[in-house]
Amino acid sequence: MSNAKNPIIAPSVLGADFSNLQKEIKFCNDSEAEWLHLDIMDQQFVPNLSFGPGLVKSLRQHSKLFFDVHLMVSNPFDMLLPFVDAGANGISFHIEATESRFTFPPKILINMIKKNGLKCGIAIKPKTPFSILKKYIEFIDYIVVMSVEPGFGGQSFIPSTFQKISEINEYLIEQKIRDKIMIQVDGGIKLENYKDVIAAGGDILVAGSEVFQSENPIQTINIMHSK
Ligand code: DX5
Ligand code: ZN
Fold it and tell me: What's 165's domain CATH number?
């Protein structure tokens, strides 16, 4: 079943020109984008480094969009409060990171995020089955389905993700919680495939390179938003 609502578009700052972030953020502010996706990488959970709470705090002065922090880090617990203080509105962490002996069980992370009044998401890598999330689902606001291996922007969408999105969508409908939990899809979303992502059940589309490398980022965002 496809989603009747317009998708939330979440441009990913990772795809922006870091030397001109004010201009890039203004494109997002002036578009139909509702969320801004902020990828945090620690070079441990993923083989890349991005940026930290200081940059998020600076961007906060230039945008009223919903700040969606995606933690791709080995120890999400220690990173939560710095991003809450920096102005995050939602934080997602990877379920795979919670297997590490350095971190805390998912329920503790969820409680900490919610206690601070933020929306909470849990992310799963392409090879991680959705079933692993079922026991947490009633406590969270969104599921982040990674459609590329986390770590880098500009990769190609992994086609098997469509099946995973549909599986999640159907499960949420069956459980009668479809209106309580959103499905975010992250990675490789382009003008050529965004409609299929929406048709499969995607509610929040994260797009980095397609938005910021396009000639007209505002138009690209608005096309995706219009379905
Ligand atoms: C990948 C990140 C994505 C990335 C998406 O690890 O989580 O959010 O920025 O970038 P594109 O749209 O270029 O695949
Ligand atoms: Zn991301």
Answer: 3.20.20.70
User: Global pTM?
Assistant: 0.97
User: Among residues 42, 68, 141, 186, which one is catalytic?
Assistant: 186
Q: In angstroms, what CA-CA distances link 144 with 21, 45, 91, 127, 173? A: 25, 16, 11, 13, 17
- Tell me, yes or no, whether 148 lies in a domain: yes
In a domain, 55, yes or no: yes
Active site residue: 30, 39, 196, 203, which one?
Answer: 39
Instruction: State the Cα–Cα distance between residues 199 and 82, nearest whole angstrom.
Output: 36
**3 within some domain:** no
Q: Whole domain around residue 83: which residue ranges?
A: 8-226
**Is 186 among the residues known to form the active site?**
yes
Look at the chain and report how many structural domains it folds into: 1
In terms of Cα–Cα distance, which of 50, 25, 45, 131 is closest to 94?
45
Q: Does any domain span residue 1?
A: no
- Kindly indicate the confidence band of residue 101, based on its pLDDT and cuts at 50, 70 and 90: low
Q: Tens digit of pLDDT for each residue in 181-205?
A: 999 999 999 999 999 999 999 999 9
Q: Which of 9, 13, 14, 161 to mutate to test the pocket of ligand 1 (most atoms within 8 A of CB)?
A: 14
